[in-house]
């Protein structure tokens, strides 16, 4: 189809990638966000090769390579630092044809904003949509109305447009743990600079991975009751307590980070839900399938959504609603499987059943490194871009 006007709600990874892909397809695209200033939530993200391949197809491969960290290996270590497994990523990179990139969220956002050919319309909170025979109109709290042939609802995990699509409100589910994440200068005393290092023990996890600018993106995971009070002033003291007795680099990391620059989300997911589309409104990204970050796939799935949605619109002449249904059929199967797998992995890592977590620790010590890369490869290759 030609000459479509698309209204995108939300300028996160999903909304911006969709905005770029749809603009490149020749459509008129308006992207709206409720915030006055776009600031990424969280410090870093690992973009696995399926996400990077979407960026490649959008002409952003070279930019991505500049801002992405050169991660050659993964190391799993016990909480006291003994090596459990050393996993080279080269078999994965060779099989899938693209290296993964850990990246600072701010760098990724800057890249996506620069690639989107118009200005994002900030300070526009969408409060609903109305459809008539001719199209669909997004309605904003400030009185503005935006009419288009379709609305892409990329409004995140607490999406209000999800309620419109499903006809009922769905509350995100708590994944059982809290995550602290941030950036620190890279230092070989913390971790090798080509390596994603992960310390595991007591159902907790500490991770550091290299990103551009000689920095590490780090995170700590701790299973905690939902609603545990958070205050940057006490982050260091809390983490020192949670990780007492862990290896020296973990202690150094706690000393080093700036608590005022650390994000502390409680991890939630959504779904699986079986509807991503109603009429001319399509959910995309976390609004459809917020995912526990234990496979590093939530943002990658949002990018896949953006690519698939654009392809269906471009390649049919049977109308917008038809294209969106085809999008829904393909994406519910793929993204819902990832949501379920990531939740299972979150439970395995964070001690929902302590025996299963213990079994995982034992398995890590004996597993063939290629079993680990094969499992990640399988997830990547199930995406739309081979
Ligand atoms: P969001 O980024 O939430 O964007 C939604 C946008 O919509 C926001 O800008 C918001 O302001 C706007 N909005 C909301 N409501 C309205 C409204 N009513 N009107 C207008 N605008 C509105 N994914 C990976 O691929 N790899 C990783 O390594 C990874 N690590 C993660 C680590 C953590 C700790 C977490 C929490 C997530 C991680 N993810 C990862 C998941 C990834 O961050 C998300 O899947 C991704 O950011 C979702 O993007 P989105 O655009 O769908 O939603």
Defining traits:
386 residues, alpha+beta, FAD/NAD(P)-binding domain, five-stranded mixed β-sheet, globular, binds flavin-adenine dinucleotide
Description:
By secondary structure, the chain is an alpha+beta fold. It has a single domain, classed as FAD/NAD(P)-binding domain, CATH 3.50.50.60. It is built from 13 helices and 17 strands. It has helices at residues 13-24, 49-57, 61-67, 90-96, 105-115, 161-166, 235-242, 248-256, 286-289, 298-315, 320-349, 354-366, 369-381; strands at residues 5-9, 28-32, 44-47, 73-78, 83-88, 101-104, 126-132, 135-140, 145-148, 150-153, 173-185, 195-201, 204-211, 215-223, 266-269, 277-278, 281-283. The chain has a 7-stranded mixed β-sheet. It has a 5-stranded mixed β-sheet with strand order 2-1-10-17-16. It is globular and about 65 Å long. The model has no long low-confidence stretch (mean pLDDT 97).
Topology pattern, helix = H, strand = E: EHEEHHEEHEHEEEEHEEEEHHEEEHHHHH
Structural class: alpha+beta
CATH homologous superfamily grouping: FAD/NAD(P)-binding domain
Ligands present = flavin-adenine dinucleotide
**Spatial ordering of strands, largest sheet:** 5-4-12-13-14-11-15
The helical percent reads: 25-40%
Radius of gyration: 21 Å
What's the domain count? 1
Query: What's the tally of helices?
Result: 13
């Amino acid at each position: 189809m030609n000459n479509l006007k698309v209204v995108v709600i939300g300028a996160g990874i999903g909304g911006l990638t969709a905005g770029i892909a749809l603009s490149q397809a020749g459509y008129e695209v308006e992207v709206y966000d409720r915030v006055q200033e776009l600031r990424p939530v969280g410090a870093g993200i690992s973009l696995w090769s399926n996400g990077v391949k979407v960026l490649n197809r959008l002409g952003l491969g070279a930019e991505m390579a500049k801002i992405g960290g050169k991660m050659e290996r993964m190391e799993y270590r016990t909480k006291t630092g003994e090596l459990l497994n050393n996993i080279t990523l080269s078999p994965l990179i060779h099989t899938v044809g693209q290296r993964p990139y850990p990246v600072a969220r701010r760098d990724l956002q800057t890249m996506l904003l620069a690639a989107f050919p118009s200005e994002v319309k900030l300070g526009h909170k969408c409060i609903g949509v109305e459809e008539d025979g001719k199209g669909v109109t997004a309605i904003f709290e400030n009185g503005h109305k935006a009419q288009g042939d379709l609305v892409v609802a990329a409004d995140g995990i607490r999406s209000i447009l999800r309620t419109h699509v499903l006809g009922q409100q769905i509350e995100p589910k708590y994944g059982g743990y809290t995550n602290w994440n941030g950036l620190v200068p890279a230092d070989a005393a913390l971790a090798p600079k080509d390596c994603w290092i992960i310390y595991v023990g007591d159902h907790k996890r500490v991770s550091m991975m290299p990103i551009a600018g000689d920095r590490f993106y780090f995170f700590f995971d701790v299973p905690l009751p939902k609603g545990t009070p958070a205050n940057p002033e006490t982050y260091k003291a809390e983490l020192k307590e949670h990780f007492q007795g862990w290896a020296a680099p973990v202690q150094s990391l706690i000393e080093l980070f700036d608590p005022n620059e650390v994000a502390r989300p409680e991890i939630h997911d959504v779904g699986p839900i079986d509807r991503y589309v109603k009429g001319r409104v399509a959910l995309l990204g976390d609004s459809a399938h917020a995912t526990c970050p234990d496979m590093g796939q939530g943002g990658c799935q949002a990018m896949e959504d953006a690519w698939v949605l654009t392809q269906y619109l471009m390649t049919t002449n049977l109308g917008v609603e038809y294209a969106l249904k085809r999008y829904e059929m393909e994406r519910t199967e793929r993204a819902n499987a990832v949501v379920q797998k990531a939740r299972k992995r979150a439970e395995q890592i964070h001690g929902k059943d302590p025996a299963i977590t213990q079994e995982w620790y034992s398995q890590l010590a004996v597993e063939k490194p290629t079993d680990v890369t094969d499992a990640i490869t399988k997830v990547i290759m199930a995406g739309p871009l081979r």
